[in-house]
Each structure stands twice: as structure tokens, then as C-alpha cells.
Amino acid sequence: MDQDVLIVGAGPTGLALAITLRRFGVSVRIIDKLTEPAAVSKALVIWSATLEALQGMGIVDRFLATGRQMHAVRVGDGHRELGQIVVGDGIDSAFPFPILLSQAGTERKLRERLAELGVTVERGIELTSVTQDEAGVTGILRSTDGVESTSRTRYVLGCDGARSVVRHAIGAEFEGLTEPQTFLLGDVKIDGGDLDDRSLYIWWHDGGTVALFPFEEGVWRIFTMRDSGPSSDEPTSLAELQEKMDRHFRPGATLRDPTWLSVFHINERLASHYRKGRCFVAGDAAHIHSPAGGQGMNTGIQDAVNLGWKLAYVIQGRGDPDVLLDSYEAERRPAARAVVDESTQRQHMAFRGGLLIDTVRDLAMTVVGKLPAVQKMIQVQLSETSITYHDGPLVALGEPGRRPKRGDVGTRALDATWTDAATGESRSLWPSISGERHSLLVFEDDGGTIDLSGVPEAATSAIDVLRFDAATDPDQAIRKRYHLSGPGWVLIRPDQVIAARGEGNDVAVLARYVDRVISVDPGFASAAPS
């Protein structure tokens, strides 16, 4: 084998996958057919769940240092601002806010982290075909000068976008549709308009809509929809975007100095399956949808951290390969289905015009502005912290038949504050559960300890045990966050999803999970690439 894994595509998903695998010691090769990183930025928003994932990669501070924290989403009709949603008020996360950062900036930081882990993107190389057998995958590669070569790896991961070669190779249909409307995009500077560069604006008036996103110092992205006509797919211009602003936004905003102008159609598609044998798809190769909500890149990075640790475990000889690898599609495809559907609904709500629709929108946003519970629901949905894995072989190992609530099996772990008994200082739980291993939170009373002797000892090297008692959790705040009324335990996966839980000394579920997911097969012989 040349390497353990070949990753095709060096966008955010491919880079996040490569980083995740390298954290576990997996050898990786990552290629991209572009000779240079993309200069334009499709994605702009990094939501809470992705910031949590970046904490696990050890680089969240780099993003927080340069990203602009979003404060609000402001909605209006012509001269009137109908209301605003203060972003972050309702998100239960170690990072209860989104940040605005260009995709180019995101990719640059991910490449830097990957280089620190010993891997550099190989550019100007595309995958043309793959064949797989029981031992591995053979890929035919072609460079920009036409030279062909062969790659031999255990697995191939397709992060190669909407026209994915890997998706085609595994026979997955890209099910869905293309919206007929033509959308316009421009990265511009704006004079006037009374704009707050930490707010996102969605404005409609006179049968149309404009959306404004701040993403670099003094630069805004404008989204709008072209009126239907025989030349609707012709290139756009600054003059056309200005005409849209004059019609649909409040007066006084002048566009200038465009750096990117584009027209596009929105696709809403989902791969029929994510895996065939040793080949997988993730990110835009698996799902594409409306940019409404800014979740595309975030969903791809969540794919990466979900698949990455599972594939690493299989390569290390841990657990049941079928249980681990089948759980990727079982967990992530329903999550992507929900994102596709929800973003489509948001796009239709924001961009479909007409007097009746405008009136309904005005009324709806006026009501939303007065209902904190509805605002919280919208924020949590966008943050991706509420994604729950109801089904799949890993969830079934925990609490079969139970529909989870936050803090239960299949939901994202919760941050909390604990007390360092040695120093008396308060600390965040999140950094302690963001490593390469499972984290076992053990909650004990003063009178005794939880007996973990039933857990296979060989698996403990992959588990960090964190014990909490009256000294470290004096108010039982962490215990209550995880819905435990007395002694018990909670096991958290490397992607910060709750894997299993139990009360008292009942560790039968824990032992079963460890046996099928974490334990090393005694007969496993590592076949490290030569």
C-alpha cells in the first residue's frame, strides 16, 4: 500500500478529514485537480458545531482570532426593519455563536494545520477511475500535463464536489433537482446603507429579495435573484446588482469595487448512498443545497469528523468494521437530508416574491421578533448542535428504541464548568472531551466509586476517564446537564457525540459498546503501508 487513505479533493471537507485521520496516526495522501487553491469563497459562516470540531483539531483559537463574530440577523421590507434575531442567545455550546470568515481563509488555516501534521496537498492531480478488491483500492491518477500514475490505498474518500468521480464510481445517484431561478452573487464594497458589519441582512421589497453577508474588512457578499427572462443566465454586472439593491433594500446603499460577480442555479441533491466497500463520499460529493443558512461547508466538516475517527479505528484494528463503517451513512445521510430540506424551505421563504408572499413574510417576521422560543429554535437548527443520531448501529448499542433529548445517547455532548480540586479554579469541560479518544465521565458520591472492572482492560488506552465528585462538581452541575440523578457514567465519542450512558454500577451497556467499537481484535495484524 502507498498510504492508508487517498482523499480526493482539498476543500474544507477533504482537509478536515485529512486532519482528523492524521490525529489518529493514519497515513494520508490528499490530491486536488486545481493547481492553486480557489481564490473565491463560496462559504462564509462557521457555526457552533463546526467550531466545536475545530477545537478537537486544536485550531479553534486561530479561527476565533481572525473570524468576525456574527451578532444578529436583521430582516426588513423596504424602508422598514421588521426585526432581528440576536445570534447566540439560544445556542447551547462551548461556542454559542457563529463566526464569519471567507472559505479561502478557512481552507488556508486547515492546510496549515495539516502541514503541521506532515501532509501537503498535491495539486494538479485528478482521479480518473477506481477499482477495489478485498484488500484495497487502486486509483488511476492524471496530472495536468497528462501523465498518468497509479495509487494503491486501503480506502478512497471522495470529497471532490458536486461532480464527484468517487460518487460516480460507487454508483450513487445524486437525487434531487435544480431550481429554475437564476441567482446573482457579488463580493463588493458598500457605501452608506447604515450597515453593521457583524450583522447579516435579509431584505425584501417590490417582489424581490437581497441578502447581505459581511465576510472581510469592508467587503460584503450580496445574494439576489434575477427576474425571469430570455437572457437570465448571462453574466451579471455591478449595475444589475445596484438596481436590485435600489429596488429591494432601504435607500442610500451604493455598491462599488466588485472582486467577484457570478450567476448560478441552486441544486438540491443528496447521494443515494455514501459508501460502497472501501470507497466513501462526503461534503458536496454527498449533498448540495441552497446557501440559505450557510450550512453547506459546516455539514461537510461534520461528515469529516464523523467518518474520520471511525475509519481510523478500523485501520487500527479496533471494533467491528461493519458496525463502525455502516454507521457513517446511517448517521450522516439523515442529517444531510434534514439540512437540504430546511435550507430549501428557508430559500423559498426568503426569495419567492409577490404581494401575498411579502405580506405573509412581514407578518411572520414581526411575530418571530416577539417570540424568543422561535428565535432559539431557528438558531439551534442553524448551529447544527441539535443534530441527533436516532438510528444506526452505534446508537443501537446505547439505548435502543429511545428517542434522545440533548444529553442522551446520539446527541452532542454538553459543555459545563467543573472545579479543579487542586487549584479551586473553574474550568470548561469541553477541552477535556475534544481529543482523539473516547471520554468517560464518571459521577460518584463520596461513599464509593463506580466499578469499571467489567470494561475490557485492553480498550482503556482509547478512553480518557474523568471522575467527578463533590469536590470537582460541587453543585452537581455536570451531572444534571447529563440527566443523572445519582451516580452514573456517560461515554463520549471522539466526535463529541454521546455514545452510551448508565446509572450506578451498571456498566453492561458500556462493556458491550467497548467490545464492539473500541476493543482491539487480538487477531488483528497491522498492515502499515510500506
UniProtKB/TrEMBL annotation:
This is FAD-dependent monooxygenase. GO terms for molecular function: FAD binding; oxidoreductase activity, acting on paired donors, with incorporation or reduction of molecular oxygen, NAD(P)H as one donor, and incorporation of one atom of oxygen. Residues 3-343 form the FAD-binding domain. SUPFAM superfamilies: FAD/NAD(P)-binding domain. InterPro entries: FAD-bd (IPR002938), FAD/NAD-bd_sf (IPR036188), RIFMO-like (IPR050641). The keyword Transcription regulation does not apply. Keywords: FAD, Flavoprotein, Monooxygenase, Oxidoreductase. Pfam families: FAD_binding_3 (PF01494). Its cofactor is FAD. It comes from Acidisoma cellulosilyticum.
